[in-house]
Amino acid sequence: MEARTPLPYGRQDISEEDIRAVVDVLRGDWLTQGPAVPAFEQALAAICGARHAVAVNSATSALHVACLALGVGPGDIVWTTPNTFVASANCARYCGADVGFVDIDPATMNMSVTDLSARLAAARANGTLPKVLIPVHFAGLPCDMQAIHALAKSYGMRIIEDASHAVGARYRGEPVGSGRYSDITIFSFHPVKIITTGEGGAALTNDDELAARMALLRSHGITRDVAAFRNDYLGPWQYEQHELGFNYRMTDLQAALGFSQLRRLAEFVERRNALAGLYDAALAGLPLQRPQRDAAHLSACHLYVVRLDEPGLHRAVFEQLRADGIHVNLHYMPVHLQPYYRQLGFADGDFLHAERHGACAISLPMYPALTREDIERVAQALARAINLQLPEKEAEDALIS
Fold first, then answer.
1. Are 165 and 135 in contact (CB under 8 A)?
2. Model pTM?
């Protein structure tokens, strides 16, 4: 049988306009620290309804400078969700802070407001309240930010929205990134995300001081602003290092690509939602849970994650799909069960909903260039993989019983 083209779980969508935008930078005077980065920042902030966007070389860097800007350091505690990429927790560790987790809502796969409320009450009683909370908009579906914000305000916490999956999403009619329910919002522009800058990220905020501090930290802690100088003015060559910063700058090449991609952001999100609708229909009747669809909020549909009703089939179904050229993935192995975090005292059973999710979740291909035929192929391969394993599992269960 003729081999079929492999389908990755995600990939970039690059147009001729995107290519021309990057080539124009290559033919210009600035490859980095030129006009393309501020132009991208202004366009991104305008789309999201935020005062400031600070572009950096990755969402991980954005999370790091966001934590630093909020004063996270040794002795502080930061909470996030176990159902995320490790960067959502690591950013606190970079600052010397401790990390805690809040379990997920099994319906949305986002941070559970119920679990958050209970853990905050317990933390207040024993004096271990977090300084910063990092909810994650998993797969592009916004968290219940209104409820999370209300709790944060009550307990005196700051909020960083990890919206790495959610540029272009909307919550209660407003763009994610507007800052209504958080201090800082983080976006990722990795190639599998909604728009791409190759690698890249951004931190959005409505706070002038937070924006200035993050901009300083991304470039070695150095300023050339004469008005901010602390030493005597010596001449036009002068610069001053005010903080121990980092080289987290985005290049003009990346920003030009991002600026061009932003023009298609609404188109990308609309296409991803249409593809999710096709998946919903194609997978109906299979023994699995499909992603929750919430008419009140617009998901960016970064991922389409299903969860098998029978966790015991997970590995076999996953491997069968990969053998069929469907390059599925897992989002995510729970962060608290990674060896690094086990060394910090976390263990199996700490966050049951996140652990159950990690034991049965499969991320199916999701990117704008997918076709109806591709989705039918994925659905048929998934149905075959499940049906191949069910008889074996039923036989095993009969033997045990």
1. no
2. 0.95
Q: What is the rounded CA–CA span in Å between residue 65 and residue 67? A: 5
Q: For residue 68, how many other CB atoms are within 10 A of its CB?
A: 21
Q: Splitting the chain (401 residues) into consecutive groups of 10 residues, what average pLDDT does each group show?
A: 81 98 97 97 98 98 98 98 98 98 97 98 98 98 98 98 98 97 98 98 98 98 94 94 97 98 98 98 96 90 97 96 98 98 98 98 98 98 91 50 43
Q: Token digits for 353?
A: 């909903």
From the candidate CATH numbers 1.10.1060.10, 3.30.565.10, 3.90.1150.10, 3.40.190.10, the one assigned to the domain spanning 265-400: 3.90.1150.10
The CATH number for 7-262, chosen from 3.40.50.1820, 3.40.50.12780, 3.10.310.40, 3.40.640.10, is 3.40.640.10
The first and second tokens of residue 171, run together, are 């919550």
225-255 pLDDT tens trace: 999 999 999 999 999 999 999 999 999 999 9
| Residue 262 structure tokens | 């932003």
Q: Which residues contact 392 (CB under 8 A, 6 or more apart)?
A: none
Per the annotation, the verdict on 393 as an active-site residue is no
One of 131, 153, 193, 393 is an active-site residue; which one? Answer: 193
Q: Are 237 and 76 in contact (CB under 8 A)?
A: no
pLDDT tens-digit readout, 5-39? 999 999 999 999 999 999 999 999 999 999 999 99
Dist. CA 123–CA 130, nearest whole Å: 8
